[in-house]
From TrEMBL, chains A, B:
Family as reported in the entry's similarity comment: Belongs to the esterase D family.
Protein name stated in the entry: S-formylglutathione hydrolase
Pfam families registered for this protein in UniProt: Esterase
Active site: S148 (charge relay system), D224 (charge relay system), H257 (charge relay system)
Gene Ontology terms, MF aspect: carboxylic ester hydrolase activity; S-formylglutathione hydrolase activity
Organism: Litorivivens lipolytica
GO cellular component, one term: cytosol
Superkingdom as given in the UniProt entry: Bacteria
Biological processes annotated in GO: formaldehyde catabolic process
Function: Serine hydrolase involved in the detoxification of formaldehyde.
């Protein structure tokens, strides 16, 4: 693991690293914000999973999260959204919603994707182990959140690892990827044509099948262009209701799918995670 | 004036407009954040002047200012940093520090620049008149701030228009452009070889010559790569001291020249301007 950059920010450090990722068979970059508290103690860690087309840097420059992370004493780790590099296969037409920038936080089973696109293992195992080994975090205090494709990643990763994450939240998540064009395209490519294999990566399916969830918070803009066709927050609300899961899922009038929406509510999300992460 | 985009942000609106700018002989874009208060009343207005290579959008996406503008009920107008368009002359070698993206907030006197590069007139007269005509701002309550080249712009515009701006602040401003490579190159190109003509756009020279200043706040990172050669905060401190001007000019350990530095202190700057703008 090699430090690529370090920049002072809100009395902490915005850091960027690169490392060879075994699960992805390539060199990956990730960003970490360390709050001032990390100078003297191990701090809780919050994983941010970004959406389609993003790298590790969009969140870092646009979300305005550092202020709140500094306030609450939480580290934020922001990984990239797919394997990267000249040797990594990409969508043949360079589509934005499959291949590079669109790993969908699954372990691909179909060649050629299966040799590289194992983002689930990377986010759940490899990256946290690396972070715990090299950075002043308290690996026993982890939470996860994300946006759009990364909201899907955060929800499914929390659902598939009960007891591991203290809390989970999402902005405009893809709630039911097996039932929307983005998810159908990605899952067909990465997981094959058998739709039963897809259900293990669908938050609504997992909840309906009885998977447990830590405290959940979701915000969804009502003016989000992707809401009706791709995101389906209503199905998440219904699935939680059917299982008696108390979740804080809010529609926000006039807000869209952008980082301006994320920035507007990122403080509330970090405060939500901080409460869960600081509980004994 | 045509609206290009509007995005909900912190319960206000992040807006972008384009218009034909007479002073610059081209079509210009600018961004405006309107806080929630602007739905029902005219709000004070703060002009942000960006640094080299920026457009109107860098500040909008990276500074995290909207949160504080929403809190204090202030509109922030962010113009571009030079005239734009295929017909606008640029540095023959496409240098980042002259021509497009590098207007230096002066009125050029040398051809071919003088037909387009009149950023001083644009910022001081044309843009505020347009904003006052079309947007719910209280034009009698204006302040100005900026970064690097835009910090130079904010300081000199405040100094050259005594009584107009309620307050002025800057992040890592070019304090004495007549005495640094960036300023020498730009002023030679825009204003010609007579160094006496440059002094009207040099904050340290203007202060030394007795120009008045509204309340002033400056932050300067000590790890800023441009500090020693280009920025010269010490000369601003000395010039203020020599004239008995009480200014809040702070060095910040470890901070660099980036928007991470700006984001870290933008809240304090907006609070500073808010106090001046809300005074009766």
């Amino acid at each position: 693991m090699e430090k690529v950059s370090e920049v002072r920010c809100f009395d902490g450090w915005q850091l960027r690293y690169k490392h060879r990722a075994a699960s992805l068979n390539c060199v990956m970059h990730f960003s970490v914000y360390l709050p001032p508290h990390a100078e003297t103690q191990r701090v809780p860690v919050l994983y941010w999973l970004s959406g389609l087309t993003c790298t590790d840097e969009n969140f870092v420059t646009k979300a305005g999260a550092q202020r709140y992370a500094a306030e609450h004493g939480i580290a934020i780790v922001a990984p990239d959204t797919s394997p990267r590099g000249d040797n990594v296969p990409d969508d043949p037409e360079g589509a934005y919603d499959f291949g590079l920038g669109a790993g969908f936080y699954v372990n691909a089973t179909q060649p050629p994707w299966s040799s590289y696109y194992r983002m689930y293992d990377y986010i759940v195992d490899e990256l946290p182990a690396l972070v715990a080994e090299h950075l002043p975090v308290d690996a026993g205090r982890e939470s996860v959140f994300g946006h759009s494709m990364g909201g899907h990643g955060a929800l499914t990763i929390a659902l598939k690892n009960p007891g591991r994450f203290r809390s989970v939240s999402a902005f405009a998540p893809i709630c039911a990827p097996t039932q929307c064009p983005w998810g159908e395209k990605a899952f067909t490519g990465y997981l094959g044509n058998n739709r039963e294999d897809w259900q293990a990566y669908d938050a609504v399916e997992l909840i309906t099948a009885g998977a447990r969830l830590p405290p959940l918070k979701v915000d969804q803009g009502r003016s989000d262009n992707f809401l009706a066709e791709q995101l389906h927050a209503d199905r998440l609300i219904q699935a939680c209701k059917a299982k008696g899961i108390a979740a804080d899922i809010q529609y926000r009038d006039d807000y869209d799918h952008s980082y301006f929406f994320i920035a507007s509510f990122i403080g509330e999300h970090i405060a939500f995670h901080s409460a869960a992460l600081s509980a004994q």
